[in-house]
Amino acid sequence: MQFMMLFTILFPALAALGIRYITIGGQLKTLHSYVMTATLINSAALLHLAFGPQVESFRLFSFTEKLQMVLAVDGLSRVFILIIAVLWPITVYYAFDYMAHEGGEGKFFAFFLLSFGVSAGIALAGNLVTLYLFFEMLTLATLPLVMHKMDNRARYAGKRYLLYSMTGAAFGFIAIIFTQFYGSGGAFTLGGTLNSDLSAEVIQNLRIAFVLAFFGFGVKAAMLPMSFWLPAASVAPTPVTALLHAAAVVKAGAFACIRLTYYTYDPALLSGTFAQYVPMFFAIATIVFGSYMALRSNHLKRRLAWSTVSNLSYILFSVLLMTQGGLLGGCMHMLAHALIKITLFFCIGSVLVSTGKEYLDEISGLYGTMPRTFLCFAVASVSLMGVPPAPGFCSKWLIGSSAVALGGTLPLLGVGALMISTVLTAIYLMTIVARAAFPADGVLQRGKPVEKHRMVVSQIILCVLIAVMGLMNNTLQSTLAQWLF
After folding, report:
1. Closest CA to 384 of 437, 330, 422
2. Which residues of 302-312 are buried (b: 16+ CB within 10 A; e: fewer)?
3. Which of 149, 287, 344, 392 has a beta carbon 3.0–4.6 Å from 386's, enabling a disulfide?
4. How many angstroms separate the CA atoms of 68 and 176, rounded?
5. How far apart are CA 441 and CA 172, in angstroms?
6. Cα separation of 304 and 308, whole Å?
7. Is 185 helix (H, G, I), strand (E, B) or coil?
8. Among the listed residues 405, 414, 402, the one whose alpha carbon sits nearest the alpha carbon of residue 280
């Protein structure tokens, strides 16, 4: 089982190298079969790690006595594994039709597989040093995907993505220095790895380091003031933006913030101090700001990108409550948002490929030729708005109730921000549905449906998963509680 942890990281990288030989004189059908087989094998291995017997931690090697690369599986690992192992194969299947429109399939799927392996490394990272290394590698692995088109917009988005990510990682490195010096340097432990006999001055310095590192890791989670790279990255092909916004990069940022708060630091050391209140204020501001910017955006993918900015800070706000309820609510929203947002992006990508339409004012009456796509979009929209019993409602309820239970000015202000964001979410998503299904002139576009088969099938599968998650909320919540606590 320890070998399997290493396998899930290295196998996709080796499979990515093999694409070079598949594409030389090979057919596109062969490439698709190869990529899907490799993806399914890795997903199966990850799911076995998540649901199989307990696995002992695995030390790869040591830089020093305390600086070690460690792989491990714990409850939080299982949450991230569930996201990437389920969504990656569906996205690959969707991408087969989408990338026929974009071109460059060989290079695209090579980096797509490589990113899968690096994401597995983040999920299985056993301490902060290992997490940091894979965190940096994820930036480098996904950068070619963001810049796939290699036009001026793609180059600009790639430069911004690289600059923001590297800057954030530099701030995150501060936490490694402090926690390694004043901690055990061991594997992630709920309650932290810091020493118990710390002076007041050291504790104050550790809190400052926490704030800087939280903002640093929060760059990938697009928290203010470092949110603007994410909408710019929407120039990437939709399978990339879908995974960027739903599974890999942005969830890695939220995941790292959880690891920092609950598994490296002791929340009791931070709660009730500036180390909690400063990042919480920015998370609350990001919730409202992201929703407002989504409402203002006429470009469909950028509208969804700003929506992601807002919803990621739901998770960060919940994490910063620094309670068990906050941790559970944040993990629930990680899962719910992953399923819902990838569905929304798939639907908009289908519109882009089938019709070339990118803007809200161009899709009037489009439901007539793309009914299944907009029905799936409506299902995901209602779920993100938080209509019961959708998973978006369940996770928001957990976050809001945890904030009310904690009490205090900022947590209650956060509840108000969630309510404002929910109203704005209803407006900016249902406007798209209404424009497509109920055009101002009352005329639906007629003709044979133009939707591509594999793209529609992917959307329908995701909608089924959304419905199942909503109906099985109690089971999922109790399972997560068992994993985490």
Report:
1. 422
2. bbbbbbbbbbb
3. 392
4. 12
5. 53
6. 6
7. coil
8. 414
**Burial, 232: exposed, middle or buried (Cβ in 10 Å; 0-12, 13-18, 19+)?**
buried
296-353 residue pLDDT tens: 999 999 999 999 999 999 999 999 999 999 999 999 999 999 999 999 999 999 999 8
Cis peptide before 89 (omega within 30 of 0): no
Question: How far apart are the C-alpha atoms of 189 and 303, rounded to whole Å?
Answer: 38
| Token code pair at residue 423 | 């109203």
Of 94, 95, 99, 92, nearest in space to 40 by CA: 92
For residue 66, give both structure tokens: 């305390």
Question: DSSP 3-state helix, strand, coil percentages of the chain (rounded to 5)?
Answer: 75, 5, 20
**Alpha-carbon span 304 to 241, nearest angstrom:** 10
pLDDT at 24: 52
Distance CA 405, CA 323 (A): 10
Token pair 């407006």 is found at 427
Distance CA(369)–CA(353), nearest Å, equals 13
pLDDT tens-digit map of 16-33: 988 877 755 557 888 899
**Can you spell out the DSSP letters for 397-434?**
HHHHHHHHHH-SHHHHHHHHHHHHHHHHHHHHHHHHHH
Q: How many CB atoms lie within 10 A of CB 60?
A: 13
Question: Helix or strand or coil: residue 373?
Answer: helix
Query: At 59, is the secondary structure helix, strand, or coil?
Result: strand
Mean pLDDT of the chain: 90
Q: Using an 8 Å Cβ cutoff, are 415 and 399 in contact?
A: no
Which segments within 53-109 are labelled E, that is strand? 58-62, 68-71
Give yes or no for a contact between 185 and 67, defined as CB atoms under 8 angstroms apart.
yes
* Count of CA atoms in the C-beta half-sphere (13 A) of 241: 32
Of 448, 302, 465, nearest in space to 371 by CA: 448
